[in-house]
Amino acid sequence: MALRPVRDQGVAGRPTLVQNVESLAHVALIARYGPGWFRSVGTHDSPGTALVTVTGLWESPRIVEVPLGTTLGSALGITPARAGGIQAVLLGGYGGGWLPTATALSLPFTEEAARGLGTSIGAGVVVLLPTGVCPLVEAARVVRYLEGEGAGQCGPCVNGLDVLATQFELLAHRPHSLRGGTSAFPVLCGLVEGRGACHHPDGVARFVRSALDVFGDHAALHLQRGPCQTTRPFLPVPATAGAVR
Amino acid sequence: MSRARFRLVVDPVACDGAGVCAELLPEIISLDPWDYPIVGPGEVPPSLVDLARRATVSCPRLALHLVRLEG
What we know:
The complex is a heterodimer of chains A (245) and B (71).
Chain A: H1 21-33, H2 35-38, E1 49-55, E2 62-67, H3 72-75, H4 80-83, E3 86-91, E4 97-100, H5 101-106, H6 111-116, E5 125-130, H7 135-148, H8 155-173, H9 184-192, H10 200-214, H11 216-225
Parallel strand pairs in A: 1-5
Antiparallel strand pairs in A: 1-2, 3-4, 3-5
Helix pairs in contact in A: 7-8, 7-10, 8-9, 9-10
Chain B: E1 6-10, H1 20-24, E2 29-31, E3 37-39, H2 49-58, E4 64-68
Antiparallel strand pairs in B: 1-4, 2-3
């Protein structure tokens, strides 16, 4: 029996409405100040603002309210000089996708624009990856974390994500033992995409595909010259029981 | 009234990779490296609908479903 959506069967078996606190805050403000006020910022299709969690710009992550449709670069006040210290940008959190810095900072911040680039604003998590850390080591930690976060319900996800995480760890730490270079990754992504009861494997595949896209040159360097010297971990990844590195 | 059209759908939670479906219906179903079924795209050709139905009832987990398409 397939799992039923919570809108049909949720808390105590009853139809359940799941609401986002940010949406409720918007509803309250619209009720108080009216739709015209709400639409005074944002674009026609994406009115209002979005709360964005930004990692990599300050000592610790901060939540910033971004008017939809403005570029991330101007909303966060990132100067060209500051942008030079950013290696790439992760949009939409760990189920989202990597973008080159210039692309991400000049993108009008809306869901439509993000989807046009194959990623998503998603939960509003933005990571600015600084230069000087190995992007493949960082991505490998995330892929292993995501693998461990699976619900363990569907065979292709349980098996596929483990192989995907292991292959990514090889690319990051022991690239010379990776037979066939990075050619196995698109195949492995294809073997998990759309084959779970939920979209967890699809999100992991999107993360992996975009990482190889944006860090392709870095992957080629690993394959030619070997791994980077280990750096201090940058991306926040909760500790898991079976953490490898 | 036109002939009914069908698609084969795997319930990924119920499926435990027994592989019976791919044995019975290799025309449509192949196995991934972990022995879980990969169903070919599109609808089931009319000539294979009876065999597809047999595959669904032969699945030890009843994880394969023949779904009638609307219209």
